[in-house]
C-alpha cells in the first residue's frame, strides 16, 4: 500500500514541470514566515497598543487598500516587464517593512508602515501568472490546488509554531523571522527560477501606459466583473477567520493564542491532506455550482460560531468551513486564468484582487463595530446571511453564463 502511494506521488510529480515545483517550494518558505505572524495581527494590535477591534479594522482597511494598489501596479508591471523581477523586488521590500512594523512603538507609525508594506506587495499577480504560464489549461486548477496545499502546509505549521514561540519570546522575533524568510526566497528566486513571461514579437510589446490602460479592457469584461462582485461577498465571510475569530474566542470563551493557532492549523492540515483529491473529484463539475456549494458550507461553518460554545463544536465548525474552502479556492483561481487572455494574465489576476481588497478593507472594521458595541454573536449571524446571499449569487451567475455563452466547465478551466 505504501509503495502504491509512493508511485501515485511520483506520477503527480511527473505531471508538472520542475520549475513549477521549485516555485511551490520557495513559495512555501515565504508563506511559512508570514503564517507565523499574520493570524496573530489582531491579537498583537489589541495587546501592543491597548486598542479595540475598531482600530484593528482600520489597520486591515489601510493594508488592504494599499495592497490592492500594489497589486494593480504589480499586474501591469508583470505583463510589461516580466514575472521574476517583480517578485524579487516585492520580497525584498516587504521584508524590510516587516522588521520596521515589529519595531514600531506608536499605532500611527504602524499604520504608515503597513500602508508601505501593502504598496510593496506587487508580487502576488506575478506568482499567479507564473502558474498559468507554466501549466497547460487542463492542469491549471490542479496546479493552483497544489499551490494552495503549499500555502496551507505553511499555515498548518505556522500558527501553531507562532503560538508556541510567543510563549517563550516576543512578537518582534516573529517579524524578524518573516523578514528572513522573504530575503531567503528572493535569493532562491534569483538563482533557481527563470522568467516565464511568454515571448512576444516586438510589435506586440506594450508601452507602460498601454499596460496600465489595459485595465479598462478588464473592467469591461462584464461576466468577469460580476464574478468578482460575488467573490467580494464571499471574502466578507472568509475574512473573519483571521480578523475576528481569534479575538472573539479569546474574549468570549477565554481561548488562548495557542488554541486559536491550533484551530487554524486544523484548517490548513485538512487542505494539505485533502485539497488535491477534492480538486480531482470536482474537475469536471460546473465551477460556479461548485463554488455555490462551497459558499453554503461557509455560511454554515462560520454561522455556527454564533450558536456553539464548546471546543468540540468549534472544531466541527472549522471542519465544515474548511471543506467549503477546498471547493472554492482552486476553482476561483482557475476561472480567473480562463477569463484572461494570455497577454493580460497579470492584470486579470490583479483585478481579481478586488475580491479580497474590499473584504479586508471594510470587513474587519464592520466586525469591530459589532463586536465592540453589540453582542458579539450577532456578527456570526450576519456573516451567515452574507454567505447565503453569495451562494445565490454564484447560482445566478452560473445561469447568466449559460444564457450568454457555453458553460465554462472546470475541465476547460484547468
What tags apply to this protein structure?
single chain, 414 residues, mainly alpha, 20 helices
Description:
The longest helix is centred in the first third of the chain and has 29 residues, at 53-81. The protein has 20 helices and no strands. With 414 residues, it is mostly helical. The protein has a single domain (16-196, 209-413), classed as Growth Hormone, Chain: A. Helix content is 82%, strand content 0%. Helix 4 packs parallel to helix 6 and helix 4 packs across helix 7.
What top-tier CATH class fits best? Answer: Mainly Alpha
Structural class comes to: mainly alpha
Number of helices: 20
Number of strands: 0
Could you give the order of the helices and strands?
Answer: HHHHHHHHHHHHHHHHHHHH
**What would CATH call the homologous superfamily?**
MFS general substrate transporter like domains
Q: How would the global form be characterised? A: globular
Largest sheet: none
Strand content: under 5%
> Judging by the overall fold, what is the CATH architecture?
Up-down Bundle
Oligomerization state: single chain
Helical content band = over 70%
Q: Look at the structure and give the mean pLDDT.
A: 83
* Backbone CA Rg: 20 Å
Which fold name is given in CATH as the topology?
Answer: Growth Hormone, Chain: A
End-to-end CA span: 30 Å
Low-confidence residue ranges: 406-414
Task: Tell me the domain tally.
Answer: 1
Amino acid at each position: 500500500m505504501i509503495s502504491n502511494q509512493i508511485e501515485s506521488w511520483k506520477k503527480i510529480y511527473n505531471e508538472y514541470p520542475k520549475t513549477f515545483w521549485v516555485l511551490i517550494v520557495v513559495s512555501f518558505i515565504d508563506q511559512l514566515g508570514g503564517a507565523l505572524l499574520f493570524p496573530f495581527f489582531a491579537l498583537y494590535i489589541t495587546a501592543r497598543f491597548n486598542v479595540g477591534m475598531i482600530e484593528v479594522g482600520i489597520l486591515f482597511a489601510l493594508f488592504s487598500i494599499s495592497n490592492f494598489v500594489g497589486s494593480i501596479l504589480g499586474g501591469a508591471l508583470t505583463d510589461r516587464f516580466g514575472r521574476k523581477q517583480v517578485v524579487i523586488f516585492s520580497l525584498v521590500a516587504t521584508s524590510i517593512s516587516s522588521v520596521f512594523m515589529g519595531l514600531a512603538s506608536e499605532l500611527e507609525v504602524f499604520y504608515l508602515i503597513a500602508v508601505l508594506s501593502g504598496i510593496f506587495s506587487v508580487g502576488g499577480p506575478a506568482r499567479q501568472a507564473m502558474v498559468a504560464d507554466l501549466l497547460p489549461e487542463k492542469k491549471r486548477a490542479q496546479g493552483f490546488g497544489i499551490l494552495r496545499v503549499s500555502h496551507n502546509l505553511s499555515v498548518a505549521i505556522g500558527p501553531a509554531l507562532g503560538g508556541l514561540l510567543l510563549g517563550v519570546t516576543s512578537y518582534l522575533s516573529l517579524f524578524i523571522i518573516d523578514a528572513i524568510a522573504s530575503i531567503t526566497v528572493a535569493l532562491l528566486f534569483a538563482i533557481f527560477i527563470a522568467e516565464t513571461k511568454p515571448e512576444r514579437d516586438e510589435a506586440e510589446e506594450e508601452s507602460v501606459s498601454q499596460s496600465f490602460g489595459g485595465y479598462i479592457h478588464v473592467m469591461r469584461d462584464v461576466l468577469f466583473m460580476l464574478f468578482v462582485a460575488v467573490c467580494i461577498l464571499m471574502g466578507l465571510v472568509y475574512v473573519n477567520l483571521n480578523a475576528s475569530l481569534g479575538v472573539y474566542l479569546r474574549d468570549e470563551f477565554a481561548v488562548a493564542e495557542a488554541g486559536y493557532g491550533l484551530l487554524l492549523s486544523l484548517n490548513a492540515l485538512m487542505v494539505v491532506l485533502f485539497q488535491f483529491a477534492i480538486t480531482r473529484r470536482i474537475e469536471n463539475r460546473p465551477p460556479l455550482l461548485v463554488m455555490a456549494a462551497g459558499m453554503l458550507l461557509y455560511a454554515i461553518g462560520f454561522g455556527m460560531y454564533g450558536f456553539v460554545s464548546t471546543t468540540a463544536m468549534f472544531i466541527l465548525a472549522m471542519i465544515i468551513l474548511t471543506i467549503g474552502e477546498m471547493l472554492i479556492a482552486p476553482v476561483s483561481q482557475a476561472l480567473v486564468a480562463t477569463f484572461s487572455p494570455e497577454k493580460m494574465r497579470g492584470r486579470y489576476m490583479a483585478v481579481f484582487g478586488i475580491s479580497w481588497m474590499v473584504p479586508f478593507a471594510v470587513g474587519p472594521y464592520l466586525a469591530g463595530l459589532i463586536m465592540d458595541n453589540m453582542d458579539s454573536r450577532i456578527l456570526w449571524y450576519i456573516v451567515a446571511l452574507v454567505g447565503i446571499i453569495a451562494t445565490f449569487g454564484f447560482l445566478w451567475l452560473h445561469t447568466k453564463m449559460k444564457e450568454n455563452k457555453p458553460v465554462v466547465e472546470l475541465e476547460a478551466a484547468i
